[in-house]
Amino acid sequence: MIKKIICQLWNQRRMNGWIFIELVIVSFFLWTVIDPIYILTADKLIASGYDAHNRYVVKIGNYESSNGNYQAEMNTDSICKESYNRIIRVVRDLPEMKDFSIASSASFPNSGSWNGTQIYNDTADIKNDKYIHTQYYEFYLQDGSNMFRTYGMKDAFTGADINIPADAGTRQKVFLSEALARALFGKTDVTGQKVYSHDKSSYEIAGVFQDYKHRNYEQPYPLLVWVYNEIQGKTYMNWRYSITFSLKEGVDANAFEQRFKKEVMPLLKAGNFYCSGLESFEEVSYMYAQRSGVINQLRLKYSLAGFALLCIFLGMVGTFWIRCNARRQEIGIMRSMGASENAVRNQFLAEAFLLVTVAFVVALPVVFHQVHESGFFSSGVTRTILDMSYWQNQPVMHFCIVTLMTYIILLVIALIGTYIPVKRASHILPADALRDE
Amino acid sequence: MIKLYLKQAWTLIKQNKLFTSIYVVGTGLSIALTMTMFIIFYVKFAPIYPEYNRDRMLTIKAMKCYPKTNKESWNCNGGASYYLVDKMLKDLPHLEAIGAGKQDFMGNNTIALPDKKEVMEVNPYYADSGFWSVFSFRFLAGKPFTQADVDADLPVAVLSESLAKRIFASTDVVGKYFTFNGKEFRVCGVVQDVSNATPDTAGDLWIPLFLHSWVSRTSEGEKLIGNVHIYMLAPTPADKEALRAEVQDVFRKYNLQTSEYENDLMQQPDDFWKSTFRKNSCEAPDWGELLKGLIYILLALLFIPAMNLSGMISSRMDHRLCELGVRRAYGATNKILLGQVLWENLLLTCLGGLIGILLSYLIVLTASDWILNLFDDWVNDPAKTPFLSFEMLFNPWIFSFAFVLCVLLNLISAFVPALWSLRHTIIQSLNTKR
Q: Which residues form the MacB-like periplasmic core domain (chain A) (predicted)?
């Protein structure tokens, strides 16, 4: 059967040539388009390490000197601190609030800012410059603020809430993500050990939390959390410190958001600081994905993939429609010799399958060369350490998955494109087909 | 003769409806996506209100500086110091006009009538007086603020037509007062609305530059990093290179006389079109990679459907070999027959082109809130949705490009199959029906 089909394809090579070339081009093109989609989607599917549901960031602004509401006498560090603390306490006392957190402005998921530093597991490493690059968060314990509970970050071992020692702020203890602990010590059971900064200051590890993604479309990056007791008064505190909180179970988020806008926002005004709005973690995440071009990437790649597949669909419909017309006599003979409609259909589908498969195999070395020269698609923070447990970080597995995805999608579309004209042609009665000829 | 070819093509279209449909849809799809891409870049690069002088404009939108002793300890920002405009560049020989502007990205700007409590959010744009000479705003009433107003930090503003109508229900509002961020401002002019599709000039109102607390008249010591975007106009497009060289020379000399810091223009000043790709404030874009990516997409949009169409034309040519044989027997040359095939297919391609251009308008209009940013790595404010004006969508360039695309697609897809069919001898061609 296969031999017969190969013979058929070869005999009609001129007619098949164009669709074959198109299939080769599309195989290559589709591969390059599916690769970014695969990476972005696979990275997005990795557990984020926090819970975005019913969590909010309070947007705080400050009146600039050019603003009519600006009060020059309020613009001292101490008054600013008092004003900011007043706003914090109003948020803390909201009846719907479950947990709240005061952190630096780069220290909440999908924040536009990103802080990084170099960290060492031994003072000898400082001399040898053997550091681990890590992202860091800073949070402040004042007024009962608890970043871990607010974000829903969990202990790496127990999966429960993270316990913050009472002296964490005073003794500047730190918390590490699993990825950072592994990178520094090769294991995650490191509570009580010390890490060092470049100036040889040492910090005791108070706990290890589950891997955490600062940005939704990226993989978890090593993360270190510094703990401090209280914020410092500055005139630009609204840029320096973020206020986030989570809602209690059972609170209607929509009703709360409306109440916040109407009743709470006017209360969040002290000195030159004022509340300019409330943003849920989901909104912050989507906004960042839009700003960073990830949504654009996905839109563009999906459009291009759709375009290429539609072209293949039309190409297969056109080619097999012409081919079926040209082979009516053959179909008539097959049908008169007892071949069922299914048998006729299957033969054409097998031809399409073979055409797609051969074209795809021809395109693969070119794809391989492209990947070898330019690498896979990459986005976000350049990472020095890759977590090899993710398939997208294993080159062979990555290549195989994208190849398989491309092949299956291409094959399915091509077979649908083939099926439509073939189904129509296989309905023909043997007598009609033979009489037409 | 061409009329006859087109008549014949029309008959063939009516006879082969499925062929026609697939051909037209394939062509339409290719042209729709290519045209969408063209419209996106047309809006970014071409002369559009109020940025009619883009072809003779140079920009500085980012600045980097570092200690002369340590290049790695750099400092950069998405803007330059106004000191450049005020003291360093304004007297260059090939400079017709220079202006500076700053988009507000902090948000939370409100506007109201003095005696009303109700406020509305607006997007202000901070500009100096040169800004009005560089860009061609259409004033419906009043005039722009002057450099004296800018220097004196006078609370005056130019309003957009729609904002004037929203707060005063009229555009004839010069001299009227309103409050902006709690301060009283006087209207000095009203201009035709500017779309967010031209982000270098877009705003709801334009106010003097130094009213923005982040903009300073002076430089930060020897550092020239700052917060304004600088727009320079050369007298003609041909003078741009001379102006660019002059700007770079000013920088070279400035860097020679500084003792501590070196200021890096990062290959600026940019042509306007190039500046639309400058999203990273700390390094120049990789133009080669950018261009490669766009050409790759463009080629895919053209060649993938062209293969489709070639396959279909090739099959149709096989059916018409006999007809070609008869025509050649009566003296038609290969050139004439090739012309016939290309003209016939051009009709089909143009039909597809027409559908394609309509489809591209549909895509651009339905996705207008994000489509213009589709190729951008970074979108400053996704919440700002642009409106698309008549001149952005309906102009000779867009229609000419669509037609050129049709001809190109027609040539790519029909030329080789037609030439292939004409290789047969007259006898072979006539015998195909036997």
A: 146-262
